[in-house]
Design a protein that fits this description.
Two copies of one chain form a homodimer. Chain A is 69% helix and 0% strand. By secondary structure, chain A is mainly α. In chain A, helix 1 crosses helix 3, helix 3 crosses helix 5 and helix 6 crosses helix 7. The relative contact order of chain A is 0.11. Chains A and B meet through helix 7 and helix 8 of A and helix 7 and helix 8 of B. Chain A binds a DNA duplex through loops.
DNA sequence: AGTTGACCAACGAACGATCGTTCGTTAACC
DNA sequence: GGTTAACGAACGATCGTTCGTTGGTCAACT
């Protein structure tokens, strides 16, 4: 006889994050998600109330991770440069340790309804503002643009970096900081 | 009496690019696409043979644009630094002048079947190789990583830059080049 | 220790809606 | 008058979701 798979709500949300990250929200059916958990589609509704709610939860997990990371980095004492380093190191940690939630947060937020989407957009702007402020303290000529460029590099990590390569996490942080501070002339 | 909308194949492909860019491939139905053109869903098949073929065509248009741009930039005479500038300026032109195809190329290529996806991936790598080579000529310490970082900034333009702001196209190119060459210290 | 019963999560059939696509028909244009 | 493209009904498949049923777990009680 075969045993029934029994899963927790957290299992469902985490697996949804994985599939949303890999195939996108519209590319993932509830039956796909259930199959990944060893369930039938209808069984998911013992844990969650709708597919859209699942997306909201995954995206908000991503948003919270970045927010917590930024708060911790800004709370550190020291120079503005050291706080920038903490921001970057924190960002890299969030991306590498929570890749699925991050990818869903970055790529699928546009699917959310107006209310949730604007909330996520606001969170993203607050996060970017952390970078702008630190860069301002560092007397950077154009903190707004510098923040965009640095975050472009950081957010793109999701698309290419995999820890299997020779580039270790701390080296990655140093390389990004080196590039942001001095450009290619190093 | 009402006249019937008559469209060309190119109208269909261009509009598909617009919707794929805005809503994603799986988020766009053939009836959505037809409605945007003032047609019924079935009428599309007078012009194209399948939804997937539409995606292939849009993505390949994006790939071709970047390839042509890189070839033109590399064909210019002058220093490696001037060729890098031509690469960056060309990339900015492609993104700003063909936003829909670029967004679909960057974000929806993963939906393609294995054959087309690997072809697009190869094209992307050849494009990145152009940057690696020029950066190598410039004696950059780590051309591979520098190319990734620079392209991260360039590809992210699709997500935030809109020409309505105060930042003009040529200024944008200069800012990106300045950041890539010298970092935030300028 | 054994029995009972409430609870809970998964099952499985079924719903209406929408998906991509087909095809015979219709109408506008050279 | 022949060609071409849009129409409009219809196809089977799949979508998200509902709901009555089933079976396993575990605490309470004898």
């Amino acid at each position: 006889m075969t045993t029934r798979a029994v899963r927790s709500r957290d299992d469902v949300v985490r697996t949804a994050g994985k599939l949303f990250a890999e195939r996108g929200y519209h590319g993932t059916s509830m039956r796909d998600l259930a199959a990944e958990l060893g369930l039938l589609g209808s069984s998911l509704y013992s844990h969650i109330s709708s597919k859209e709610d699942l997306l909201v939860e995954v995206v908000e997990r991503g948003a919270d991770l970045f927010q917590s990371s930024a708060e911790a980095a800004l709370a550190t004492s020291g120079t503005a440069a050291s706080r920038l380093k903490a921001l970057v190191a924190g960002h890299v940690d969030v991306v590498l340790d929570h890749l699925d939630e991050v990818r869903t947060f970055l790529n699928e937020a546009g699917v959310l309804d107006e209310v949730h989407r604007s909330r996520v957009l606001a969170a993203r702007d607050r996060y970017e503002a952390s970078y702008r402020e630190v860069l301002s303290e560092m007397k950077v000529a154009d903190p707004k643009l510098a923040a965009i460029f640095l975050l472009s590099i950081l957010n793109a990590l999701e698309r290419w970096y995999r820890p299997t390569g020779s580039l270790q996490r701390q080296d990655l942080v140093d390389e990004i900081l080196g590039f942001a501070l001095n450009g290619i002339r190093r």
